[in-house]
Amino acid sequence: MSRPIMPALRLEARANLRLAAPIIATQVTFMGMGTADTIMAGRYSAEGLAAVAVGANVWFLAFMVFMGILMACSPIVAQRIGAGRSAGETGAFVRAALAFSVLLGLLWMAGMRLAADPVLDWLALGEPTRGYAHDYILAASWSAMPLCLCFVARNTAEAHGLTRVALLAGLAGLFVNVLFDWLLMYGRLGFPQMGPEGCAWATVLAAATMVLVYAGQYRRIATLRALGVFRAEVPRLGEDIGEILRLGLPIMLIVTAESWMFNIGALMMARFGADTVAAHQVAINFAALSFMVPLSVGFATTVRVGLAAGAGDAAAVRLRGHAGIAIGACFALFSASVMATMPATIVGLYTDAAAVTPLAVQFLYFAAVFQIFDCIQATANGALRGVKDTRVPMLITVSAYWIVGLPLAWWLSFRTSTGPFGVWWGFIVSLAIAAAGLSARVARRTRPRPQASGSVDMP
What does the record list as coiled-coil region(s) (predicted)? Predict the structure, then answer.
C-alpha cells in the first residue's frame, strides 16, 4: 500500500527545501554582485553608471544564453546518479561538459567583442558613456570562459545534492567582486583607477575565483573527487555534447524568452517618462528578489525529479514534481500577500520621490498577481527538466511570452487608454498561460500509465 499522500508531500517538501535553501543563498550572492556594481558605478559618475548599465545588459543577454545551454547538465547528471551509473561513467560526461564549456566560453567571448561596436553604434551613446561601455564590454568578455566552467561545476555538484559547494563559490566571488570594484574603479591602495572598466575586471576576477573554489571542492569532497574531472584523458565529445544540446537549447530558449520579455517591457516603459521607468524598476526589482525562492525551488525540483526518473521510480517522479509546484504555489501566495498588503512600505525601501511612489505602489499590486503565476511556472519548468522534457515547455513559454505577452503589452500600452499598466497586464496574461500550460504538461508527463499502474511517461 502506498503512503498517504499528505505525509509523503510534507516529507518531500522538507527534502526539496533542504536542497533549495543553499541555492537561494547562492542566487542572492549573484544578485549582490550586480547590486555592488551598480552602487559603485553610481558613486563614480552618472556616465559611469549608464555605461555599466549598458555593458552589463549586453553581458547579461549572453550570460542567459550560455547558462541556459549548460543547465542541461543538472538533469543529465541527476538521472545518471539515479540510474546507479558509476562515478567513472558520470565523470566521463562531466569532463566532456567541461571541455564543451571551454568552447562555449570562447564563442561567448568572441561574440561580445565582435558585437561591442555595432551595438554601441546602434544605441548612439554620447561620450564618455560610449567609451566607458566599450571598455566594459571588452573587459567583461574575459569572464565568459570561467563562468561557463562554473555553470558545469555548479550543476554537477547540485545534481549530487551538494548545494553548499555553489554557495561557497558564490560567497567567495561576491567578496572578490566587491573588493576589486572598490580597488579598480577608484584606484585605491595603489591600484590603477580604471572607472567602469575596473568594474568589469572585478567580475572577471570574481569568476576566476569561483573556478578556483570549485576546483578545490572537487578535490576535497570525496563524491566529487570520485568523478575524476582532473584526469588527463581526452573526453568523448560527440554523444555527450549532443545530449547537452538536445536538452540545453530548448532550456536556453525558455530562460531567454522570459528574461527578454521583461527587458523589452522595461524599454516600453521608457516611452512614459523617467518617473514611470523608476516606478517600474522598483516593482520589478522587488518581484525579481522574491523570485529567487521559486527559481531555486525549481532547480532543486529538477534534481529531485531527475534522481527519481533515473531510478525508474514513477511514483517518486510524480510526487516530487507535484511537491515542487506546491511549494512554489505556497510561496507565491505568501509573497503576493506581502506585496498586496505592504506596498507603500516596500516602495519606501527604494525611494521617497513623490512622483514615483504612488505609481510604484500601483505596479506592486500587479506584481502581486503575476508573482503567483511566475512561481508556479518556474517550479513546473524545474519538474519537467528533471524528466528531460524541454521541447514542449519551450513551445509553451515562447508562445506565451512572445506571441501573446509582448504583443498584448504593446497593444494595451500604446493603442488603448491602459498606458503603462498595459505592460504589466501583458506580463500577467503571459505568465498565467505559461503556468497553466506547464502545470498541465507536468500532470500529463507524470500521470500513471494504464498498462503499468506505477509508471509514468518518462523518456
Answer: none
